[in-house]
Amino acid sequence: MNKPIFGYDDEGSNVAWTWNVSPIEKITWKTWKPKLNNVKIIGLTDEKECARLQKEIYESVMLSEYPKKEKLTGMYKQRGYK
Q1: Domain residue ranges of the chain, discontinuous segments joined by +
Q2: pLDDT at position 78, please?
């Protein structure tokens, strides 16, 4: 099974990236949550630029796929509703 290659728009230039996971089947599991070091930039040699892009891609994936849960306030928090 081949690793999927994704594209990221960095100020008008396309950056190719993929997940750096040894068993590629993990990506399709709902329980797998990526980490920052799982993002692999393809074809970029500059370490600072690569680290910046890794962080941007990771944050955008985490924000879209794993949004933070809203905490209940007021009487809903006191009563224990979910």
Answers
A1: 6-79
A2: 65
Percent of the chain with pLDDT over 70: 78
The answer to whether the CB of 67 falls within 8 A of the CB of 61 is no
Angle at 32 between CA 1 and CA 19, to 5 degrees: 50
Integer Cα distance of 56 and 78 in angstroms: 37
Measured CA to CA, the distance from residue 3 to residue 66 in angstroms comes to 22
Average pLDDT per 10 consecutive residues for the chain, totaling 82 residues: 79 87 68 85 88 92 84 68 54
What are the φ/ψ torsions at residue 66 (nearest 5 degrees)?
-130, 70
Rounded Cα gap, residues 7 and 15, in angstroms: 6
